[in-house]
Write a structure and sequence with these properties.
36% strand; globular; eight-stranded mixed β-sheet; 10 helices; alpha+beta; single chain
């Protein structure tokens, strides 16, 4: 259950549960918005191709001069071809080099191979085969085996499940090796999974004998995989092991090679996840030197993909940290000493978009000018000359030109349709390239979708709420509400951006999304409230939002439905039990119901171990409050879910059955993992839509 902040490794998201239902009845014949122009490609540093749509709904292309904004029609663009990128793919357990439709087979053994990665000079690929690490020289086809002791539980260059899911990221597909910049060496994790408990996954299978899968899956308090870091030559030879004790209960983050290839930055975190250390390890002998150390009273995230960036040829690095209470940027010398703070304040640096080393300037996005908005800023390495480059009360999505002298921004807010502008990297607007506002859009439509803020019960936070009202909203009438949530620490589902009003429902339902104090926009200051109790403050904040809506909007208190998937499923179950007084209906997918059933790294980060925090685990468990369930709860789960095991949902069902509680419905999806995919998605949408129609609308129709 990786961090929701980038929605990086999860399948179905909370907000997606309502999409099909609210879009089934689109308003016909109304032209509220039309398509924005699209930037197809920058042809050089000063020109780009833009696609536009004419009154006959035909696409045409224009060349745009970035300096002046002048456009000229390009009737030949569609006939221009662009070379397809080369990529490595796995087919029938062998590696192929693919470019466009052409495929070249590189390996021919049909053994289990995985995660092929080009060397920086593109002369080699590195890959794993049967738990060992190999290289292949592309020019000659020569294979070199780099490790020789791999087994099912001792993996070289391959991540264990918990590292893949929670630290290195599913997008890397288990890759646990990293090329040096000069393509001469590879750093890799050797992972010993032998002492990690085995979880058994079963499913219906394709035949009559069922399906069984065994997974090394550490739960809170269990033995974790043991990891050590090695460095080996591309041509083979002895591995140089880094100077860490593999028997210490510890975690390692993604390492980073220095630009001169002489050292490897290794991120270390204790099992308690509140003590972070950064080491420089000599590549030739594995000896380590401590560069930086950080402790926090709650937790430190190890999975921040943009934490470290070398600059100035490796003489300095930029570090991101939330130690101040907000994610900010710091400039360090290569020896780890702090040069200066680059950014500071009560806002969250969301991403570094570009680093201009020549002029010593960083371009980054943050929420400094709006809690649930995003703006582009620039600042000197010294921390001086902070400047906002985007404009207005909008959420901006920016894309730079090749030389970063210009950027385009697609911007909007809840009441303003998307616009597209061309801007210089000093903040000067060159040209407004497009406006999606249609002739039928007016203030009445604009007011159908709103982002509002509700003061928290303790008065410390302004809690974001996104609202979408039915198109035929009638004064004085009470309406059902469906609230789409996620709720994990450092997550966010509320953004102040435009939603196409054609998606306004005519189903008679108010659609909403809530964020709580632990969401990304509030920084670590808010997230710390979730330490040792993942649901308490989160649900308290959502109840406060709901109370405000009940008092100030036309919400039917008996028709309140909450829905979410994964962590959102957990919060939905918790709301229908602990918060049963307020939440009457729920749709929960892929839900954790007791944190003792989830993985060690994610859970202990926030909750510590069950031995250290027994009361917190009890208070945050849905199973503690099953006797409170009064409303109707639809439970959904993939039977082969290897992330949140179906045992969670089955345990909740078992407890409800023991208590003779029939206020639930169950839908299992054989063959599905942590998301509902392929041909079953339409069935999933149908089930959730029928649940909402049955319990929120049919009774309404009978009045």
């Amino acid at each position: 259950m990786h961090q929701y902040k980038k929605i990086r490794k999860h399948g179905l998201l909370a907000a997606g549960l309502l999409t099909a239902f609210s879009t089934n009845a689109q308003q016909k014949g109304k032209n509220y918005v039309h398509s924005l122009p699209l930037v197809q490609q920058w042809t050089d540093n000063q020109h780009f191709v833009l696609s536009r749509t004419n009154e006959q709904n035909k696409i045409y292309y224009v060349n745009v001069n970035a300096a002046t904004g002048k456009e000229t029609v390009d009737s030949t663009y569609r006939r221009k071809g662009f070379a397809a990128d080369k990529k490595l793919v796995i087919l029938h357990n062998d590696i192929y080099l693919q470019q466009g439709a052409k495929k070249q087979q590189l390996t021919h053994d049909s053994l289990l191979e995985a995660t092929p990665v080009f060397s920086p000079d593109s002369n080699f690929i590195a890959f794993t085969r049967e738990h060992d690490l190999y290289t292949l020289e592309l020019a000659t086809g020569k294979e070199t085996r780099l490790t020789f002791d791999g087994t099912e539980t001792l993996m070289n260059g391959m991540a264990s499940w918990v590292y893949m899911e929670e630290i290195l990221g599913r997008q890397n597909e288990g890759q646990a090796f990293w090329w040096s910049p000069d393509s001469k060496s590879i750093a890799y994790f050797q992972t010993d999974d032998s002492k990690v408990p085995v979880y058994t996954i079963t499913d219906a299978g394709d035949g009559y004998h069922g399906y069984v899968e065994h997974q090394r899956y550490p739960q809170p308090g269990d033995t974790n995989p043991s990891v050590r870091i090695g460095i080996v030559s591309v041509n083979g030879g002895n591995t140089r092991w880094t100077d860490f004790d593999k028997d210490v209960d510890q975690y390692f983050g993604t390492p980073l090679w220095s630009p001169d290839n002489k050292s490897l930055l290794v991120q270390w975190l204790n099992r308690g996840q509140d003590h972070y250390q950064l080491y420089a390890v000599q590549a030739d002998n594995g000896k380590k030197k401590l560069l930086y150390e950080e402790k926090q009273s709650t937790w430190i995230n190890l999975d921040d993909e943009d934490r470290l960036t070398f600059i100035n040829g490796g003489q300095q690095f930029i570090m991101a940290s939330d130690k101040s209470g907000y994610r900010q940027l710091y400039l360090h010398n290569a020896d780890g000493t702090l040069k200066n703070v680059i950014t500071s304040g009560n806002f969250v640096v969301k991403a570094v978009n570009y680093i201009d080393e020549k002029n010593k300037v960083i371009y980054f996005t943050c929420n400094k000018d709006g809690l649930n908005r995003k703006d582009l800023y620039r600042v000197d390495f010294s921390g001086k000359h902070l400047q906002r480059l985007t404009f207005g009360p909008y959420t901006h999505e920016v894309k730079f030109s090749p030389d970063h002298q210009y950027f385009t921004t697609q911007y909007s807010n809840a009441g303003t349709p998307d616009k597209l502008a061309l801007v210089t990297n000093t903040g000067k607007v060159v040209s407004q390239l497009g406006d999606s506002k249609g002739p039928d859009f007016d203030s009445t439509i604009a007011n159908k979708v709103r982002t509002i803020y509700v003061k928290s019960e303790d008065g410390k936070f302004d809690l974001p709420v996104h609202l979408s009202f039915p198109k035929n909203y009638q004064p004085g009438k009470k309406y059902p509400i469906v609230i789409a949530i996620y709720g994990g620490p450092e997550s966010s589902v509320v953004q102040d951006r435009f939603v196409n009003p054609r998606f306004l429902s005519d189903d008679g339902v108010i659609h909403a999304s809530f964020d709580h104090r632990g969401s990304e926009e509030f920084g670590k200051v808010g997230q710390n409230y979730m330490h040792r109790d993942l649901a308490g403050w989160a649900l308290k904040d959502w109840i406060q939002c709901l109370k405000w809506l009940l008092a100030n909007e036309q919400v039917d208190p008996e028709k309140v439905c909450i829905t979410g998937y994964s962590f959102g499923g957990y919060m939905t179950c918790y709301a229908l039990t602990f918060g049963a007084e307020y939440f009457k209906y729920g749709i929960a997918g892929g839900s954790v119901v007791d944190w003792r059933m989830y993985d060690s790294h994610y859970t202990e980060r926030y909750m510590d171990t069950p031995a250290e925090n027994p009361e917190g685990y009890k208070q945050s468990s849905v199973l503690t409050y099953t006797d409170k369930l009064k409303g109707k709860l639809l439970l959904i789960h993939g039977v082969k879910d290897d992330n949140v095991h179906v045992n969670n949902t089955l345990s909740l069902v078992s407890k409800l059955e023991e208590e003779q509680n029939t206020n639930f419905e169950l839908m299992l999806y054989p063959g599905n993992r942590h998301s509902v995919i392929s041909d079953k998605l339409s069935h999933y949408n149908d089930i959730t839509n029928k649940f909402i129609s049955k319990y929120l609308l049919q009774a309404e129709d009978k009045k």
